[in-house]
Design goal:
two-stranded antiparallel sheet; 9 helices; about 60% helix; 2 domains; about 5% strand
């Protein structure tokens, strides 16, 4: 999306003689593009593919579990250290999960994820999931590398420590509105529902006028 479509941006850039400023982001969406439904649906589709696929969700859940244990106040008990070790192993296992039969990949992934979430993870479960070292990998099934690169680039832009504030960038996983952080997928869904309602309302008004003329 061409940022020069944004009148405010173009005027500001002209006044600054081409200097975008330290807080400017090349991934910001031009204002006029906010009124295009495809802009919202495309963003939702790519973020869902990158962050809501089974592999990434399992990895995020395990990373959150590790962080939760590490941030526990005081010294870790022997049980907590054992759980932490198993969770770290589980993260490594799901990241490199492979199976000779591709239908076994989601089954093994779900088993490890569910056991970790329920607190019933054991070494035997991990050994069973990691027993195969060749075949179809979970990354091949669930991860689109180009899509992931787009979202990763947006997250790096959004979390750049050199900026005074976090910009709302295209493909960013969260956005700030009115001082509150929202998940981008939820925002995308709400906006698309609004556009759908607007289209249905316009269609109803048009049909009523046509019927009135008849």
């Amino acid at each position: 999306m061409n940022r020069n479509l944004d009148l405010v941006y173009s005027v500001h850039r002209f006044i600054k003689l081409g200097d975008d400023g330290a807080d400017s982001s090349k991934l910001k969406v031009p204002f006029i593009c906010q009124f295009m439904p495809l802009r919202w649906s495309y963003e939702a589709m790519l973020i869902s593919q990158a962050k809501l696929n089974p592999l990434t969700r399992a990895q995020d859940m395990l990373e959150a579990r590790i962080q939760q244990i590490v941030e526990t106040q005081g010294d870790l008990s022997e049980k907590d250290r054992h759980t932490l070790d198993l969770t770290k192993q589980a993260l490594a296992v799901v990241s490199g999960l492979q199976a000779s039969h591709r239908e076994d990949v989601p089954k093994n992934l779900k088993r490890v994820r569910d056991k970790a979430a329920a607190g019933d993870l054991t070494q035997a479960v991990l050994d069973q999931a990691a027993r195969e070292k060749r075949g179809t990998s979970a990354e091949e099934l669930f991860v689109n590398r180009k899509v992931l690169d787009l979202v990763t680039k947006a997250e790096m832009e959004r979390e750049d420590y050199r900026r005074t504030s976090s910009p709302n960038v295209f493909f960013g996983t969260s956005k700030h509105y009115f001082g509150t952080e929202f998940r981008t997928v939820w925002i995308n869904g709400i906006v698309m529902l609004f556009f759908l309602g607007l289209i249905i309302t316009a269609l109803e008004v048009s049909l009523r006028r046509q019927l009135t003329k008849v």
